[in-house]
Amino acid sequence: MRVVWGSWLLVAGLLVPGRVWGQVVQATPVAGTVTLLPPAASVPLAGPFTLAFRLRGAPLASHSEFPDIEGFHKATVVQTTTTRLLPGGQRSTELTVTQRYFPYTEGDYAVPAFALTVNGQTLRSPAGRVHVGAAPAAPDASAATPSTTPPGVASGSLDQLLGPPKPQYFYEPPDAGALALEADHDRVFVGQGVRVNLYFYLKPADQAVLNFYDFNNQLTELLRQLRQPTTWEVPAADPSVLPDTVRGSGGEVRLRFRLATRTYYPLTQAPLQFPALQLTLTKFKLLKKPQPGDTERLAMYKTYTAPALRVAVRPLPPPGAAVVGEYALHEGISGMRFRTGEAFTYT
């Protein structure tokens, strides 16, 4: 889906519809002339989204902070100075200040309205939206000239000016991510329920470099692979947005995302056979020696696999056999008299 920014005029302290971004704001010579540059309507996952202003005719004395954008990591501020020679030997200098934002995952995001004060002048920007997508498709001419960009690495607009990120300057940090398919019983009788959970485990620090990728489509395929034709299947609630905190065998703290839960009641003696499952996440490589203005991370994709799972199914004991074990049944109700529409609890 293509998201297009509206057209607005940004002036010092005023917002006038029906004109384009980037209109020059006339000001006193001391404060200089300030222009708020139009942002991009869409960026690739690995490329930065930027907000920037341009100052002419005066040195930069001060400027306020750029806003935070939900779904983006607010990175470094880059300053670029450009000097032009004018007729008569004069020089024109302009300063561009750029705030870089790196998206965590693909999707459509809201950019809030904000005010930016530069050398005492106030620029106001209305709210907008930006689309974060996959790496842009290469042009047809690339067939004649093979691309040197590895698969899964995107190239943004600044990359076209400064060159694409060089993978050899990045390293892949280790992570403890793991996809697991777990059942509460390894053997059940015909008609006995077995609860199966699909979990994704990771360490708290891994959240800085791992993000779910195209989760809804991947989950649909995972649920299809979890179906068992010889059972009565009862789905549980939707996947948990917030993880649980669990401890491993060595006592280390891990986060556990519940991706899917199903309870199966076998109708025959056929065992339950679950295939190996795979989930692809976005993982970011980090810059070995970060410098101001550099791309701090490089997006890639990593696939995690849960081993296959088998649950054996045993036949029911023959009729008349001795009862195994002891159990007690207790029933309770929250009241004995109710009005129409009144709720009660039965346990």
Describe the structure.
- Residues 1-29 and 138-163 have low confidence and may be disordered.
- 21% of the residues are buried.
- The protein starts with 7 loop residues before the first strand and ends in a 33-residue tail after the last strand.
- It has two domains: 8-133, Immunoglobulin-like (Sandwich), CATH 2.60.40; 178-314, no CATH class.
- It has helices at residues 157-162, 215-226; strands at residues 8-11, 14-17, 33-37, 42-44, 49-56, 72-85, 91-103, 107-111, 114-118, 121-125, 128-133, 170-171, 178-183, 187-189, 194-202, 210-212, 231-235, 244-247, 253-266, 272-274, 277-287, 297-306, 309-314.
- The chain has 347 residues and is mainly beta.
Distance between the termini: 49 Å
The total count of strands amounts to 23
Helix content: under 10%
The H-and-E topology, N to C, reads as EEEEEEEEEEEHEEEEEHEEEEEEE
Strand content: 35-45%
The whole-number mean of residue pLDDT values reads 79
Parts with pLDDT < 50 across at least 5 consecutive residues: 1-29, 138-163
**Count of discrete domains:** 2
Helical stretch tally? 2
Question: What secondary-structure arrangement, pairings included, does this model have?
Answer:
Layout: E1 8-11, E2 14-17, E3 33-37, E4 42-44, E5 49-56, E6 72-85, E7 91-103, E8 107-111, E9 114-118, E10 121-125, E11 128-133, H1 157-162, E12 170-171, E13 178-183, E14 187-189, E15 194-202, E16 210-212, H2 215-226, E17 231-235, E18 244-247, E19 253-266, E20 272-274, E21 277-287, E22 297-306, E23 309-314
Parallel strand pairs: 4-11, 14-23
Antiparallel strand pairs: 1-2, 3-5, 5-7, 6-7, 8-11, 9-10, 12-21, 13-15, 15-19, 16-21, 17-19, 18-19, 20-23, 21-22
